[in-house]
């Protein structure tokens, strides 16, 4: 299934009329791995699988397809036993597609993951990630019970967080039990006061333990309330760190712990629906901003899906309805947009399948082609959905510059802060096909 075919499916839902034939003919034909001549540049990339507890290891045998400007496949490679690939980048190469499988704990069958990047430049492309929740190597997971009666006596009616799971410490609360994996390191714990105005946190080592009795001595880090009020129409407000812990509330305070980590965030989100053409699309908008040690953050403005974003999506669909790729799009009027994605996802007879195409804030969307076996999977999706999303980092740069910054951030140590970490906005519209 080409990009044109699955977006035209959406167009039929929106009751738009195609304005021409177009077909799948290429304006830039190439042979098998064809080049425009001269010395070839090269690309270098890695494919990585993350297991149940977050341990990474190389993922071998991932297919890599190189496309020309028209979207035709002109070269095909496979990552080696170390998940690595260094390969020629033909002179007429413009776009890249990575294809492999992931396995998620909440799905019985595998999920085909296809990621395409448009307007790719030769050089180091970094890592592409997959998941395998069935892989428990190095995790050493076990169930740990947490008797809380003593904690209830010392802090009645407070809220306890074990990792990201919340429990109310009421007089008759039972002792919670959580899975803990040695591979993830110590467990983060939080205690939110009964009045919601203060909090404490700690980090406990559960090695060689199947039971751990919590006490106030385990909570040694003072929480700092985030100076941000959740919008009335937003859903849960999160305070979180990618080191592991998070807390959340609709109307009450949320807290960060500067003495535990320097990478704390506040994350509001809004869900809704918008009319696009003659159908209703599900909308989502969120922001993630870095929080200082004092609990402050830069001003947060959730992007609004109405008007400019909705209009830009409609214009893209009208562009695709011509059947003559590449298709022009422009989301730069929404705000400081860095990246755009278009995702087709749904179910197949052998599992699920997701195909995401990433580009810049504005540009051309090629009619990318896939090999026949992948094409057949996306051509036979059921319960299919199409999602259009945009992401921004609070500044305006070229697509190549954003990709360079993303590559640099992946190479940073955990305690380092990238310019991409200060603020992120995201918004999407999703359609049932």
UniProtKB/TrEMBL annotation:
PROSITE patterns, per database record: PROKAR_LIPOPROTEIN
Keywords noted in UniProt: Signal
Top-level taxon in the UniProt lineage: Bacteria
Signal found in the keyword field: yes
Signal peptide positions (record): 1-20
Protein name, UniProt field: Lipoprotein
Species per Swiss-Prot/TrEMBL record: Shewanella fidelis
Classification lineage: Bacteria, Pseudomonadati, Pseudomonadota, Gammaproteobacteria, Alteromonadales
């Amino acid at each position: 299934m080409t990009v044109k075919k699955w977006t035209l499916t959406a167009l039929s839902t929106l009751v738009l009329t195609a304005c021409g034939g177009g077909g799948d003919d290429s304006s830039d034909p190439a042979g098998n791995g064809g080049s425009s001549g001269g010395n070839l540049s090269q690309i270098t990339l890695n494919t990585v699988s993350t297991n149940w507890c977050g341990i990474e290891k190389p993922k071998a045998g991932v297919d890599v397809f190189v496309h020309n400007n028209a979207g035709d496949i002109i070269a095909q490679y496979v990552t080696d036993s170390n998940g690595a690939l260094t390969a020629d980048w033909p002179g007429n190469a413009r776009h890249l597609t990575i294809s492999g499988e992931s396995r998620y704990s909440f799905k019985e069958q595998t999920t085909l993951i296809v990621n395409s990047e448009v307007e790719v430049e030769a050089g180091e492309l970094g890592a592409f990630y997959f998941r395998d929740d069935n892989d428990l190597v190095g995790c050493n997971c076990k169930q740990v019970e947490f008797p809380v009666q003593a904690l209830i006596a010392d802090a009645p009616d407070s809220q306890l967080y074990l990792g990201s799971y919340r429990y109310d410490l009421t007089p008759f609360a039972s002792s919670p039990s959580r899975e803990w994996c040695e591979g993830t390191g110590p467990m983060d714990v939080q205690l939110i006061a009964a009045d919601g105005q203060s909090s404490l946190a700690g980090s406990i080592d559960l090695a060689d333990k199947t039971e751990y009795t919590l006490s106030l001595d385990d909570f040694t880090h003072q929480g700092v309330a985030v100076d941000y009020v959740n919008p009335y129409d937003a859903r849960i407000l999160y305070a979180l760190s990618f080191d592991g812990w998070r807390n959340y509330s609709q109307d009450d305070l949320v807290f960060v712990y500067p003495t535990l980590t320097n990478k704390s965030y506040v994350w509001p989100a809004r869900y809704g629906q918008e009319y696009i053409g003659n159908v209703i699309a599900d909308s989502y908008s969120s922001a993630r901003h870095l929080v200082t040690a004092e609990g402050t953050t830069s001003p947060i403005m959730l992007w609004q899906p109405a008007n400019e974003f909705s209009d830009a999506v409609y214009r893209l669909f009208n562009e695709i309805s011509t059947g003559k790729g590449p298709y022009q799009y422009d989301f730069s009027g929404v705000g400081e947009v860095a990246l755009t994605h278009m995702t087709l996802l749904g179910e197949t007879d052998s599992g699920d399948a997701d195909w995401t195409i990433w580009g810049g804030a504005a540009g051309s969307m090629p009619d990318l082609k896939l090999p026949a076996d992948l094409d057949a999977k996306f051509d036979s999706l059921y319960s299919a959905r199409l999602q259009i999303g945009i992401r921004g980092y609070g500044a305006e740069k070229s697509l190549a510059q954003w990709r360079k910054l993303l590559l640099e951030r992946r190479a940073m140590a955990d305690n380092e802060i990238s310019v991409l970490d200060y603020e992120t906005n995201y918004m999407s519209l999703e359609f049932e096909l």
